[in-house]
Amino acid sequence: MDVSLTHITAADRAAGVGSPLAGFRVLELGHYVAAPFAARLLGDLGAEVIKVEPPGGDPVRQWGARHKGSAPWWSVHARNKRCVTLDLKKPGAREVVLDLVRSCDALVENYRPGQLARMGLTEDALRAARPDLIIARISGYGQDGPDRDKAAFGVIGEAIGGLRHLTNHAPGTMDLPPVRVGVSIGDSVAGIYAALGVVAALLRRERTKQGGEVDVALSESVFSLLEGALPEYGALGSVRQPTGGAIATAAPSNAYRSRDGIWVLIAANSDPLWRGLAGLMGRPELADDPRFAGNQARVANARTLDGLINDWTSTLDAAALETALQGGNIPHTRVFTVADIAADPQMRARGMVQEVEDAVLGPVLHPGVVPRVDGTPNAPRSTGPAVGAHNEAVLGEVLGYGAARIAALRAEGVL
Fold this sequence. Notes:
By secondary structure, the protein is an alpha/beta fold. The chain folds into two domains: 5-225 and 350-411, Crotonobetainyl-coa:carnitine coa-transferase, domain 1 (Rossmann fold, 3-Layer(aba) Sandwich), CATH 3.40.50.10540; 253-340, 2-Layer Sandwich (formyl-coa transferase, domain 3). Helices cover 39% and strands 14% of the residues. The protein contains 19 helices and eleven strands. The protein has helices spanning 10-15, 34-44, 72-77, 91-102, 115-118, 123-129, 154-160, 163-166, 185-208, 218-223, 229-236, 271-280, 295-300, 302-313, 318-327, 338-343, 345-349, 391-398, 403-411; strands at residues 25-29, 48-53, 81-85, 106-109, 134-139, 212-217, 253-257, 263-267, 332-334, 353-358, 362-367. Helix 2 crosses helix 9 (185-208) and helix 7 crosses helix 9. The radius of gyration is 25 Å and the shape is elongated. Pfam families: CoA_transf_3 (PF02515).
């Protein structure tokens, strides 16, 4: 559909018209986090997403806090999706999936390598149904290699990819297990790469008319984030070590506690910023101290420097500390909780925190759409639906199944 972005109505925006992926249909054969997150991103950018769940529903429906018998996470996790139930272990499900594939531009899945083939959904079968299909596969280790068949979740990818080693306090400071980031970052990063891969493959298909496959490994997705760790090891033999809240290559950049116990991040790791911070601290002579003159010297003496900054921040309540830092144009922020984010004027002004109506939960807060592409609605078109909410609509309207066939599938336990 050729629509001028300047003539899109409010109703069009609600339907996703004008979004970059409007007109594309994506089939999600995903569970837990990675593939559903990838499909959610594609849905946020306008694609129509059909999610296939087992009759009991995706396990994430049961994860996290509960409200009115439902998990609020699900409202976001499955937004902009039409959910149908299929027991993929039943023989009759195979033909339904292939019929869905015929109507879809892309498929996103995160089963173990070979699992879909064992269900009869081989590469040949999928391509026979839709020769130009884009297939995005997310797995722990990738679709080949000696570890391809090993079980993995996001936390395993985080450990193999090197992140879990780095998200810890400096060696010798504590004897607890390496710290987790706090969210399923391995799954989410893999989902982002899968969504990017789908978009890239669709763009190539527009030129070549050929389908393609996207292969995303949890471990590789995390590993790709490690900045200069690999070339540093290759060139110098050095193994990057965890540094707690600090940055290993720049100082001062850390979290410092205020008098009222709030952690405030201060990033004054350039010479002009450090000089400005030293002035705010009432210690301008520190800017010329040989221990802190230049970034390399500050990094070498970071523990001493952090102690001096903490001595200053601990004399001020967080509000006064932030006012002083803002006046000095020093990059800073208190460490936000989700409550801080929900109340933040910038997040609200940008639509990154918005109240939407969920059919089960009532009013609920959703994050906005990232990335922001002109013409794309920033609010979800729909929230996470009930199990099997769109069985009749998708099978009837999209696939053209009659009521008798749908009833037979239900009787066979396929739906």
